[in-house]
């Protein structure tokens, strides 16, 4: 009927307007808030690790993407596996190497004892603030870890 055609036309018009406005709207978001993962990855890269250990799957996979080809893994490296990382991680390839362990503040210091046992030495955490969309700031802890021994 007539109302259905009007509703359909209005829906298509709103979608078209949204597609045109989206690039402009994204450009108004400050760059730092659009690239928080890249900023965190840059802070990790400054430490010049041989590999990266992220506290949980999502954190490790984001760092793996942004730091490629630098290897990144979640806590499979310290004996607490999750998701698919146990199928990709080979501790033999990393023995004796140095890492950066990344925690988000919600999980700090969960399983820190495992991290301490998996490395010869672990430095105190360094806090990193990363801006996120909406003016929020997320905090992470970076720990330099030396001489990987395995879990």
Protein described:
- The chain has 151 residues and is α/β, with parallel strands linked by helices.
- 42% of the residues lie in helices and 23% in strands.
- The chain has 6 helices and 6 strands.
- The protein has helices at residues 2-28, 31-34, 36-46, 57-67, 85-88, 112-118, and strands at residues 51-54, 72-73, 99-104, 119-122, 126-131, 137-148.
- Strands 1, 2, 3, 4, 5 and 6 form a 6-stranded mixed beta sheet that branches.
- Helix 3 packs across helix 4.
- It is elongated and about 75 Å long.
- The N and C termini lie far apart (68 Å).
Quickly list its features.
single chain, 151 residues, alpha/beta, six-stranded mixed sheet, 6 helices, 42% helix
Question: How is this structure best summarized?
Answer:
The chain has helices at residues 2-28, 31-34, 36-46, 57-67, 85-88, 112-118; strands spanning 51-54, 72-73, 99-104, 119-122, 126-131, 137-148. With 151 residues, the chain is of the alpha/beta class.
> Largest sheet, described in full?
6 strands, mixed
Distance between the termini: 68 Å
Q: Could you say which structural class the secondary elements and strand pairing correspond to?
A: alpha/beta
Q: Count of DSSP helices?
A: 6
Mean pLDDT: 88
Approximately how much helix is present in the residues? 40-55%
Strand content: 15-25%
